[in-house]
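Appendix B, record 7
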Amino acid sequence: EVFADFDPPLVAKLNEKRISAPGTSGSSLLSELRLHSIIENARQITK
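Structure tokens (predicted):
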């Protein structure tokens, strides 16, 4: 799924290009800034 069931270690490994690629549900649901923020927050949680 778009955010790996909100599992922080998995989300932290995602990159913006993978999530915002055409045809993915993430590209139509959230803005690029929000996608970046979600991934960055997951990275901070896993530190």
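Remarks on this record: The helical segments are 8-13, 16-19, 25-29, 32-45. Residues 4-45 form one domain.
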